[in-house]
């Protein structure tokens, strides 16, 4: 039996205007921009218990394979969480939508076989802390699947991304910081990086600060380090 998400008195993230904009934009991007295919690729082959970080309006839910036994979907923004709860009811795998932030995941350690981060790591307030939390909740050997905005390899666009992040871009787009080097941050957090690839959305001549993306997989080491606990 699926649990329903429970309301909290005060949300840690509150972007109601952006939430309405994103809900429309993301559906259009899925249908016309090829993003649905990226979601399919991101989630292919997953199984067991999965935690999704920043589920948004729940567009990933329709793409989880049947071998997934449960998805715990974390979403801090109330409007998007309500939309995600509706999407969860239509999903073919059990999805539990709950409030929470990436920096303080409300779940037990080593409880999940995989974690999914989809267009969310650009928005978290503390990226190293968020990645440390993802690592904490994964079982040894568990996978992190990521589909994220990232710093462009080209000097001109990278400069434009840094400039955008210093202006109104994060305020207008739900805290999005386009110039984060996502792959480097994942490695710095201690994950073993697997296969990944870079592309642009939209895949056309249009160049936005958010166009450069990366999709790939990383793994939590199978060795459990107990030294911090011992100290």
UniProtKB/TrEMBL annotation:
It is an enzyme of class 2 (transferase). InterPro entries: Methyltransf_11, SAM-dependent_MTases_sf, Thiol_S-MT. It comes from the Bacteria. One of its GO terms (molecular function) is methyltransferase activity. It holds the Pfam family Methyltransf_11. GO terms for biological process: methylation. This is Class I SAM-dependent methyltransferase. The lineage of its organism: Bacteria, Bacillati, Actinomycetota, Actinomycetes, Kitasatosporales.
């Amino acid at each position: 039996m699926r649990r329903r998400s429970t309301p909290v008195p005060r949300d840690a993230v509150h972007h109601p205007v952006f939430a309405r904009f994103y809900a429309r934009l993301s559906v259009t991007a899925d249908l016309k921009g090829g993003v649905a295919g990226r979601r399919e690729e991101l989630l292919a082959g997953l199984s067991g218990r999965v935690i999704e970080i920043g589920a948004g309006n729940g567009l990933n839910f329709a793409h989880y394979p049947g071998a997934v036994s449960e998805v715990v979907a974390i979403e801090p923004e109330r409007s998007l969480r309500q939309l995600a709860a509706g999407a969860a009811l239509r999903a073919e795998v059990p999805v539990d939508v709950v409030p929470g932030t990436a920096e303080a995941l409300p779940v037990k350690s080593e409880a999940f076989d995989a974690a999914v981060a989809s267009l969310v790591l650009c928005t978290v307030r503390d990226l190293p802390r968020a990645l440390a939390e993802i690592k904490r909740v994964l079982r040894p050997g568990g996978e992190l699947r990521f589909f994220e905005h990232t710093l462009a390899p080209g000097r001109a666009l990278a400069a434009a991304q840094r400039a955008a992040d210093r202006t109104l871009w994060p305020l207008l787009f739900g805290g999005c910081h386009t110039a984060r080097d996502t792959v480097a941050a994942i490695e710095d957090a201690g994950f073993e990086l697997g296969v990944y690839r870079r592309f642009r959305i939209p895949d056309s001549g249009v160049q936005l600060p958010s166009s450069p993306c990366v999709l790939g997989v990383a793994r939590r080491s199978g060795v459990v380090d107990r030294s911090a606990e011992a100290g």
